[in-house]
Design a protein that fits this description.
Strand content: 5-15%
Structural class: alpha/beta
Order of helices and strands: EHHEHEHHEHEHEEEHEEEHEHEHEHHH
Number of strands: 14
Number of helices: 14
Shape: globular
Length: 395
């Protein structure tokens, strides 16, 4: 069977799909990912061997700028209507036809589209195959889901196709983190989330001089990695006697020769006056970072929040944008995290999480146990293929 995955071209939208790609490939199915070609160099090392990359469509900066030109809205502080225009309108306008052509050549038997992706449903409609939607974290609020769907519907009508509802919603979010008001119009299929890891190979993490100290992972993700914000968070954490492992995201570089060209310098590593040792790393699969962490300080991307809970690691969350406020609110409500609004608050609340027997650690471990009980991706692949085969036989 041929699985086609469709996703917005960004790490946080693609990497949560990797476990399902891996499970499908291991089961002997043909697997392809359709997204913008500009992310191929960054994403290809994170994909399972044998996954075909189908390049189509534009990057987030391009379709967001297009939506801004058409609406006059501030896409950095979008309303639900603007989010609908970005993902359901401009992205289809700038890449829909190309995506259909690429998908038609691959000839999938089913399509998996992540929660923000309006391209996948269009592909399924053109090709007459079933599709399933994959959640990234807590379900999107209904007003955002409807905004993307409503705007996309106008493009579908212009293309002369009728997009059907998804066959199911693949929900990686355990009940303790899920929005209590979430309601799905299609069957919900729980899945066992995990932090991103590579199928082969691993990164080399820096060694700390005092490895027995608690290690705090500071990560703002790959998009919201503003140098000033990252520095302020690292400084706040380094005010405590801990090891600090900080990821650079896409806004910084460790290459001191090229950094000045962009007006930035590589962040300084070393031991701070209070005893904290700071080490910065480029992109490293989250599962490897979490294996070394006692606490995570993060902006609250869905992949980081769910990955940390799957590992039983508590968090301090300072949201920077996108869906992060929602994720942070749900994580804090679960009792496994504390939400804050600035770097000073990070420094103030961190001691509450450094105690290994704190309520936050206990709640995070309970979350990990709950996540481990959910169906794994191999079972999901078996169910999807069985259902698709039965539906095909019935046609």
């Amino acid at each position: 069977m041929r699985f086609l995955f469709s996703a917005v071209p960004a790490h946080g939208h693609i990497l949560p799909l990797v476990p399902l790609m891996e499970a499908a490939a291991e089961a002997g199915h043909r697997v392809a990912l359709l997204t913008a070609g500009a992310v191929q160099d960054d994403i290809a090392p994170e994909l399972p061997p044998g996954v075909l990359f189908l390049a189509a469509g534009s990057m987030p900066g391009e379709f967001s700028a297009d939506a801004a030109r058409r609406t006059g809205a501030d896409v950095f502080h979008p309303t639900p209507a603007v989010i609908g225009e970005i993902f359901g309108g401009s992205r289809l306008d700038l890449g829909g036809a190309e995506s259909v052509a690429r998908a038609r050549a691959f000839a999938p038997d089913l399509v998996i589209a992540e929660a923000f992706d309006a391209v996948g449903p269009l592909l399924a409609a053109h090709l007459g195959v079933p599709w399933h939607q994959a959640g990234l974290g807590p379900a999107l609020p209904a007003v955002i889901r409807e905004a993307i769907t409503d705007v996309a519907r106008t493009r579908h009508e212009e293309a002369g196709v009728r997009v059907t509802e998804a066959e199911s919603y693949l929900d990686p979010c355990p009940p303790l983190l899920q929005d209590p008001e979430f309601h799905s119009a299609v069957p919900v299929r729980p899945v066992r989330v995990r932090a991103h890891r590579r199928t082969k190979g691993s990164a080399s993490l820096p060694a700390f001089h005092a490895p027995d100290k608690p290690t705090v992972l500071v990560t703002l993700g790959t998009i919201f990695s503003d140098p000033a914000v990252l520095a302020s968070v690292v400084d706040a954490v380094a005010g405590h006697d801990v090891n600090v492992l900080a990821t650079l995201g896409s806004a910084l570089t460790l290459d001191e020769d090229t950094a000045p060209e962009h007006g930035r310098s590589a962040p300084a590593d070393g031991v701070r006056p209070g005893g904290a040792e700071v080490r910065h790393v480029p992109f490293v699969p989250l599962d490897e970072l979490l294996a070394a962490a006692d606490v995570v300080v993060t902006a609250g991307g869905a992949g980081t929040v769910l990955g940390a809970l799957a590992r039983g690691v508590p968090m301090v969350l300072w949201p920077q944008g996108a869906d992060q406020p929602l994720n942070a609110a749900r994580a804090a409500a679960s009792g496994a995290a504390i939400g804050v609004g600035d770097a000073e608050a990070v420094a103030r609340v961190l001691p509450s999480l450094l105690e290994p027997d704190s309520s936050y650690h206990r709640r995070a471990r309970e979350a990990a146990t709950e996540i481990a009980r959910r169906p794994d991706w191999a079972q999901v692949v078996e169910d999807l293929t069985s259902e698709a085969a039965k539906a095909d036989a019935g046609r």
